[in-house]
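Q: A reviewer asked whether we had any structural model of the full assembly, not just the individual parts. We don't, so I'm hoping you can provide one. Inputs are below.
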Amino acid sequence: MNSTATAAAPELPTKRDEAWRYAPHADLAQLTFGPGGASAAVPAELEAQIPVFDGPRIVVVNGIVDPARSELATSITGLTLSTVADVLTTEPESLTRHFPTDAEPVDAFAAFNAQFGRDGAVIRVAAGATIDQPIHVVDLALPGAGHNTSSTGVVIEIGEGSEATIVETRLGHGTESGGANVRTTITLHDHATLEHIVVQDAPPAQISLSRVDVTQGANSTFRGRSFNLGASYGRVAHAVVLAGAGAHAELSGLYFGFGDQTLDQQVDIVHAAKDCSSRQLYRGVLDDSSTGIFSGGIDVQPGADGTDAEQENHNLLLSDRAEANTQPRLEILADDVACKHGATVGQLDETALYYMRSRGIPAAEARRLLINGFADQVVDHVSIDALRPWIIDRLGHADA
Amino acid sequence: MLHVKDLTAAIGDKQILKGLDLDVGAGEVHAIMGPNGSGKSTFAHTLAGREGYEITGTVTLDDADLLEMEPEARAAAGVFMGFQYPVEIPGVNNMYFLRTALNSVRRTRGETEVSAREFLSTAQEAMDLVEMPKDFLHRAVNAGFSGGEKKRNEILQMAVMQPRLAVLDETDSGLDIDALRIIAGGVNALRGPERSMIVITHYQRLLDYIKPDFVHVLVDGRIVESGDHTLALHLEDHGYADFVNHDLDASGRPLSGATS
Ligand SMILES: Nc1ncnc2c1ncn2[C@@H]1O[C@H](COP(=O)(O)OP(=O)(O)O)[C@@H](O)[C@H]1O
Ligand SMILES: [Mg+2]
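A: Here is a predicted structure for the entire assembly that you could use as a starting point for your response.
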């Protein structure tokens, strides 16, 4: 059976690590990591929860690609889909960015992932290709006997001038503790465009950790969306390096917490080249005694003149026990930089509720309209028509 | 239709309405005028059901006790209030808002809901009535609207809701003459034998367009004078000086332009 890593286990982050300040450290310490779990049976209930839209799909169960549920063979010109395990055998050198030998992992969970996340999805788009259908990577976590937390790798490379849309959905099942630790490495070559959507809706017994590292070439565009909805602790971290001049990164995210969830978004955008622009727009809705965290970094390196960076974080507290922590982190070491940031934490507008009720809309419906109106401003960014109703439907359940 | 008897309303220590009586019959239009701070908006909100007031007295609409009802139940009973300050609701689409409102009251009344298509033609008529631009339905409720657009939107909502009792709180304030004409035209088109209206205004000029059956003067939480439309003309010439204590004269003039 899979065993827990013991030899030279990396040290877990603590409260003193800024990026992990509000994380549930005791719960994180309970997670155990090991090689991919033996493929568990996927219950029909879980299968039914997976959003459905046209396009190739790769399903990873407990860190191992499930060939029966995945379509790796594709007739789409310019698109190659493989498993991390296969590419590690056939051409491991092509994965050096994902498994670097010359750099330390950023934290213990990245280290565990590099050590055990030896399977997952590799998505490559050749230069000059436009992939019309979204590619869907589904990561399913089924903790149980002999398997606790899965480690999955996703490697995405978008060739020069190419365009693609990729959705990563993270779901799970059961009441056992454990979860998923997914690491995604994205490379955008010059003039490439990628819309990349992370939808996290793990069950309340689980922890879901996502880390997305993005490197962008000149004049490339990265549109990152995150919907951080499930898990007891749901974390989506983005580290984006604008390495080529004129690159544009646009990140938006929605976190919607209830019960005693903690939903953590960590964003770091490094402006390393001239004339790049970046946008961060995150919104949180927090009910019951949930906690939302937004920590957004804008790091403008020397020489990155002409940087244009904006960041916005808005939070809606639905209960007086809910909490929002928002923190901009700005470091600006270049000239001619336009940088704006703003954050708000507020409650449902009582006057708006009354206004709607005075028009005959029942209180519960008025609340839902207001909450969805707030959240829609992120949901509307999603370009896949078939995914938006799934998200809206999911938000409706959370509020019910 | 509407019977208001000895109505008082207070917020904390502040007594705002101090025993207000008013009877409005079916099809009648009543104007309420009064100086700033006299309690006009508070009266409108006690009819619409805003929370936060301590209220005594009785208010019945078609014999139903309004004061016992939630705001949404009052809407279903036929109350519509045009807000002095219409509320902006970012992210909520106008069309969706209006259709949800209409279908909510229809459901409460046990009527069938209107389909999207039926609703569109209802909404189109209402939009024509107040000369709203085409893109209006696809915008968020009042968000980024000009003052005049917000007030026209109130009348548009009234046209969609077809209320039994419309309470219009300073729907004319802050409007230029063209907008005033549009608003008044909308209100007049919606007058009918089964619909009563209470038109709260600061200015006589609205009453040039909407001729009320009765005019009441509200001062310091009470109706101190009632009459026909000539009372409004008297107020225009003399202000509220005849009705208020002399310290309040300056702020009490109806043409001072300030609103609250
Ligand atoms: N929420 C409130 N808390 C305390 N006082 C209020 C509140 N709302 C209104 N008032 C006071 O009640 C009085 C009447 O207000 P309002 O009904 O708005 O008057 P009008 O519409 O006639 O100008 C004013 O003195 C106002 O300051
Ligand atoms: Mg007022």
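A: Points you may want to mention in the reply: The radius of gyration of chain A is 20 Å. Residues B 40-41, 84, 170, 260 surround magnesium ion (ligand 2) (CB under 6 Å).
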